[in-house]
Amino acid sequence: MRLLALESSCDESAAAVLDDRRGLLAHALFSQVDLHRAYGGVVPELASRDHVQRLLPLVQTAMDEAGTVPADLDGIAYTAGPGLIGALLTGAALARSLATAWGLPTIGIHHLEGHLLAPLLEPDPPTFPHVALLVSGGHTMLIEARGIGDYRLLGETRDDAAGEAFDKSAKLLGLPYPGGPHLARLAERGRAGVHEFPRPMLDRPGLEFSFSGLKTAVLHAVRALPAEAGDAERADIARALEEAVVDTLVAKAMRALEETGLDALVVSGGVGANLRLRGTLHAAARRRGARVYHPRLEFCTDNAAMIAVAGLARLAAGERDGPGIRARARWPLDSLRPPTTARSDPS
Ligand code: KG4
Ligand code: ZN
User: Fold this and answer.
1) What is the pTM of this model?
2) Strand partners, 16
3) Minimal CA–CA distance to 12: which of 80, 88, 65?
4) pLDDT digits (tens, 9 = 90+) for 259-291
5) pLDDT in tens, 140-177
């Protein structure tokens, strides 16, 4: 079985071709960061307009790279939510139109299920059940993944996501949008122990997070800098912020392994590309005899290959979209069900 997948939920336009026997044949991506940089964040209307321009050429590139013609395909998967509704509709409408023209079934995929299943593209994939730490720009969740489509939410953030903590702090430090990777690079040059930021919610039981207080700590530290302070001083603040976020995520992830009795941890989502987070999680898991799995770096952030993995699992089981076009700005992850032979209703 071979399918084409599209991703357009936020500010990345992407297309991929995945084959159940030959693996990932191609993936193509265009990031809109330059388009949104001047505004310091994603402008939904600009995102939709740009997806409309980019998606079709990306489909062509991925199909060419995969040596695939429409007749080779068995279906099309696309991100149906959650995300920016206009952006989602561009991918959904294109997927449904191509599928109608080519006589193929489609399947609308939950973006976070894509992130959760991205490590299945790696040569040594995780098995189920496992604990997943999903850390992106919009979400911070611990999930017990019992199987594809069988996700129990163990805990999530009460306010800002981990990616937001990085992005908002980066803005306060004067770094360009999106700040996470820039802050991580600056933090490499920072000294440990110059600033001590709080580890939110660690003193309480449970698996919830709260990151909104950290940006206030960063704001105070930035304001307290002497006028002559430069990159070295800002790097110390970046280092302290990164350590506070990473320590909190790692402690709660270990607590989730403890509480579920599981010994496998998947880390996915954009913040999963953070090298301090990866290193610290590996070390902590090793001490408990547990293993950490993650997607390759380029598949931590948004991409279509991960949508293809989820799409293949569902289309292969016989699941298909109903007749309408599916796109949902909000879509709770734990409302998903394992792949079925049923038709999913458009909403
Ligand atoms: O998963 P993703 O591409 O988009 C969402 O679905 O949100 O995640 C983007 C987030 C942004 O907040 C970005 O700053 C953050 O992931 N991010 C990082 C790193 N790379 C991306 N945060 C910290 N360190 C990184 N290396
Ligand atoms: Zn994402």
Assistant:
1) 0.95
2) 5, 27
3) 88
4) 999 999 999 999 999 999 999 999 999 999 999
5) 999 999 999 999 999 999 999 999 999 999 999 999 98
CA dist 61 and 80 (Å) reads 22
Decide if 55 contacts 76 (C-beta within 8 A): no
Q: Alpha helix locations (H) across 175-230? A: 179-187, 212-223
The segments of the chain whose pLDDT lies below 50 read 346-347
Which residues, 6 or more positions from 341, have their beta carbon under 8 angstroms from its beta carbon? 317, 318, 319
Best substitution site from 136, 167, 172, 185 to test ligand 1's pocket, by max atoms within 8 Å of Cβ?
136
Q: What is the distance between the alpha carbons of residues 215 and 252, in angstroms, rounded to a whole number?
A: 20
Gap from CA of 111 to ligand 2 centroid (Å): 6
Of all residues in the chain, the percent with pLDDT exceeding 90 is 93
- Helices 44-65 and 85-102: crossing angle, nearest 10°? 30
Distances (CA, A) of 286 to 69, 197, 290: 45, 26, 6
Ligand 1, CB within 6 Å, residue ranges: 10, 136-138, 163, 166-167, 178-181, 184, 269-271, 273-274, 301-302
Pick from 259, 58, 239, 246: nearest CA to 154: 259
How would DSSP label each residue in 36-95? HHTTTS--HHHHHHHHHHHHHHHHHHHHHHTT--GGG--EEEEEEESS-HHHHHHHHHHH
Spatial neighbors of 82 by CB under 8 A, at least 6 apart, are 9, 110, 111, 112, 138, 328, 329, 330, 331
Q: Which percentage of the chain shows pLDDT scores above 70?
A: 99
Instruction: Provide the residue count of the chain.
Output: 347
Ligand 2 centre distance from Cα of residue 5 (Å): 15
